[in-house]
Amino acid sequence: MPGALFGVTASAAEIAAALPGDDVVPDPDVVMDRAFTLDADPETVWPWLLQLGKARAGWYLPRRVERFVPRSRRAIRHVDARWLQLRPGEVIPDYGGQDASFEAVRVEAPVVLVYRSRRGRTELSWAIHLCQVRPPGRPPVTRVQLRLRLAPVRHRWLARTAGEALDVLTVAAMAAGLKERLATEPPAAEPDAKDWTWVLDRRCAECGFEPRGIDRDELPALIRSAADEIRAALTKPTASDRPAPRVWSPLEYACHVRDACVVFGERVRLMLDMDNPVFPNWDQDETALTERYWEQQPTAVGNELTAAAERVAMRLAAVSGDEWRRGGRRSNGSVFTVESLGRYLLHDLVHHVHDIRP
Fold first, then answer.
1. Peptide bond into 62 cis (omega under 30)
2. DSSP code of 236?
3. Among candidate residues 128, 129, 52, 121, the one with its CA nearest the CA of residue 93
4. β-pair partners for 9
5. Which of 73, 132, 193, 278 is the most buried (most CB within 10 A)?
6. Is 275 exposed, middle or buried, given 0-12, 13-18 or 19+ CB atoms closer than 10 A?
7. What are the tens digits of pLDDT across the range 264-288?
8. How far is CA 154 from the centre of its chain?
């Protein structure tokens, strides 16, 4: 078996089984099957494979190999929401040459991903199939099978020797790089795509925040108080523990609140210094991944949170008179005043206090 030494050998049953995508190249001259097992469920593995590819997340390699690759060409080590919207018919670049590309044929989360391509006269399909396996007494794992089918192939012996060897090496490297990433990276949290501006007008049923009962002069003290409660949660030994695989830990919520205080403080400054500024975009989910919130140190985050909350509180405490009505807007058109932005930030803190309470 070509992949036996590298841990990517498909079983006889896997090789014999029909897979989605076999019909893309129905009469292949060469078929290459690889398979490996990952210690995660298919829902966790799926986004990593969906974002795979050139000019996307890259091709995963383990650190021991990646250190020989220029930093700018290394694959990312987090799930990036930009690459998770792949649809059938979409074309993505490939590493097989300047004009090489793959077209997505089937995208069925979290089980099947099928691509097709043409290289000269040769048609090829590349199928990725995920299957959940439940070992006795252990959490579910995922068996990943990759199948490459090619036709016509002029030099079949070359494809079955040099081609097989190259396929084994590249898949084995990808499997090792992916295992490494899964071992250190928690599943991506559920992205928050809601427009929360409605909390400026009515009570939030989830956390109980009532915007109409808050005097604007109370905003600085309430922001400090909520930040203190979040910081207190960081002293617990469970601060880094997620209550569910795709729900942030108190540590991650604290990192988010810290960064929100920084971003909103800057937005208040822009509103006071400029007429109706457009705020720079801030993707909170991307920031959490890029800054690796789950790896940060609770004590340091607590100190940074207190400092950031104090800065924005002091900025709001210095606002007076007509300054409260100065405006600004997000790129999506949502309009704020200094006062409504302060209330919006306060809700964010209060809501996350609610999120981290037992």
1. no
2. S
3. 52
4. 34
5. 132
6. exposed
7. 999 999 999 999 999 999 999 889 9
8. 41
